Amino acid sequence: MKTNLSSQITLNRVSPRYYKPENAFEKSVLTRFEKIPTDIFESAEEGANQIAYEIAQTIKEKQKVGKFCVLALTGGNSPRNVYSELIRMHQQEKLSFRNVIVFNLYEYYPLAPDAVNSNFNALKEMFLDHVDIDKQNLFTPDGTIAKDTIFEYCKLYEQRIASFGGIDIALLGIGRVGNIAFNEPGSRLNSATRLILLDNASRNEAAKSFGSIESTPVSSITMGVSTILAAKKIFLMAWGEDKAHMIKNCVEGAVTDNIPASYIQTHNDAHVVIDLSAAANLTRIQRPWLVTSCEWNDKLIRSAIVWLCAITKKPILKLTNKDYNENGLSELLALYGSAYNVNIKIFNDFQHTITGWPGGKPNADDTYRPERAKPFPKRVVVFSPHPDDDVISMGGTIRRLVEQKHEVHVAYQTSGNIAVGDEEVIRFLHFINGFNQLFIESADKVINDKYAEIREFLKDKKDGDMDTRDILTIKGLIRRGEARIACMYNNIPLNRCHFLDLPFYETGKIQKNPISEADVEIVRA
Questions:
Q1: Between 504 and which of 72, 88, 258, 513 could a Cys-Cys bridge form, CB atoms 3.0 to 4.6 Å apart?
Q2: Is 184 a catalytic residue?
Q3: How far, in Å, CA of 58 to CA of 32, rounded?
């Protein structure tokens, strides 16, 4: 059973001919803006499986001639599916990793000797502990070394890579600021393994693993750009729409130190492997009319016209035949006969999407409106992944639906407890303990005992420690209180405020559990 369908959910179905060309000629036409060979898959799983297959083939080829296969690998979420497929190959197809050497691409610095949130620990948990790789063949930067030994240590790391004949395959993700490993913007093309200060965006991303920004290390020991580019083959992978902007810059933009991932354009055997969501901003997906003839539908036409208005700096009704012809949209003139006909159609389409009645206006002509007038009132269910997503993403719409007399329910899928800081728990503990002292003279033994127990746990808590179930419950109560206040503010009765606490989310960690058949039945119910 598939447990991750997010990369297959799209509001705009992309024609396969834009990302699965039938032959080399079509591919060369579609990809003429792309400076790195780029393969687009419908899902992250498909793309990851392709990378895993090619890594496995290289391992087998090296085994046949009695050589090591040297891999540069990373932690993080991007390679998780690649590692899962390699583990499956090991368990079901007897793929051996005895001849594999692994170099960890980066490690956080500084780390305590007993730190559990290291990148290398993540790599072991996701992959290395599940295959037959020799532990002596695993190498990683050390986040615990003394500051005055870092320079020499990094030099030795480079020498150790060279002693195995260099890296055969480097498996990379792309960071939110265009970094590869932790080569942040400004990294030079000739940079080697070194200590680097983390960009704020990278540190915020890393904070997901460390629980808070305060406990996240400020720097990293990372393989340099030149070290990575010396690999014989490079795979850069990206999944999800949040990577689409950087993939566009990396694949179609100029080589620049502002986006270190763009350096792989200079490599002679680099491959970008992405899903459709991460490909959303590539020209062949976002603006296909610039590279090929299109399969036109209303949504694609609207997208093309909005783009044309932006580049010509004209309103829709003032676009001319010349504007269409000079910007690759002459097909629309052939379809509709003239710019005037296209302009009127799209203007009316857009006009009919504007409404102050998101649930439909009763007794109104709804022929060309986005929502039907009847039935009225409607029962509306708003699904909110976390207890604040509803008001952040559509608070105004919710309020208008309530004001227009619809029956609005909000269903919170998770408790949101992992997003509550320990200081919030302490603040609420102070309140309830103070209430106990002031109004019942500390008579409530449960409050007294829990107050002391939780304060003691939080005082000794280390980075990466899991919260107790009681603390997670308190954090969930804090978020529930915030959600209820938001519903009350929007005049939603509290009996229409539903907390699902879906079990596959409620792990107490960032990582979620796979969805079981029992969980599916809970969701259905």
A1: 513
A2: yes
A3: 29
